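Changelog note: in this version the structure field was regenerated for every chain. One regenerated record is shown below for reference.
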Amino acid sequence: MTRIAALQMTTGIDPAANARTLVNAIGAASSVGAAMLFTPEMSGLLDRDRARSSNHIVIEDQNPVLAAVREAAAAAGVWVALGSLAVARQDGRRANRSLVIDPAGAIVARYDKIHMFDVDLATGESWRESSAYAPGEAVVTVEGTPLGRLGLTVCYDLRFPALFEALGQARCDAIAIPAAFTRPTGAAHWHVLQRARAIEASAYVVAAAQVGQHEDGRETYGHSLVVDPWGEVLLDLGGEMPGLGFAEIDLARIAEVRAQLPSLANRRPVHT
C-alpha cells in the first residue's frame, strides 16, 4: 500500500501565506509516511482582481511559491503534485500550470490547463479564464511516481471526456484533477464526474480542491476526493474547511479492475 496526502486549501491573495500552508503540508504529509502530496488548482494565489494579482504573476523560474515547494519537497523527501500555479508566459499571457516535483526537488512534469473556464452561471457568476490565460495544447503524463504513471489535468478539464480518453489509452495508473470548483457546479456535478473519470480510465483519481470563502470574494466547493478504479470514494474532505487528508493506495487494485472489466482493452474506434 502507498499512502498519499491531499491538501484542501482556502488559498488567498498573499503568495507568502499560501507558500507557508504548502510547506507545512509537505512536512505534515512526510511525518506520517505519505509518499506524495497533491494540492489544488491555484495553490499559490487565488485572486480574481487581475490588476492586483499582476505583480505576483511571474515566470516559472522566479515564482517564490514554486521555489518554496521545491525546497520543502527535497527536505522532506516526498513527491508533490502541485495542482497549479498562475505563471507568466513569454508572450505576455498567463498559464494555469500544474507541476510535478520529485523528492529531490526537481520539476519532472509540467501541464498547462487545456480547457478555459468561460461560463455564465444561473447564479449570476461570470468567468472568462481565456481573457488572461492561454490554453495548453499537450496531454501530459509522468512516469515513476509513487502512483505509477500519473496523468495531469486541471479543474474544468474534468468536463471533457476526450482528454480522459487519451489518458486512459496511455494506461495511466492515476489521474490528478486539482480544482477550484464553484459551489453551484460542484454541488451539481463534482462527485459524479470524478467517479466517472476514475471508472472510464480504470485508474485512481486524486482531486485536491479549494474550499470556502476566499479573500477575493469567490466561494469554492471543496470535497477533495480520492477515488479508486472501481469508482469507490476512498477520501472526501467535505465542503466546509481546509485540511489535510490521507488515503492508502493499492496499486494491485488497478490490474484487478482492468481484468474484471477490460473496457480499455475492449474499446473500438467510433466513426461518424
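Spot check on this record: Helices lie at 15-31, 50-53, 64-76, 161-169, 183-201, 252-260, 263-266. The chain has a mean pLDDT of 93.
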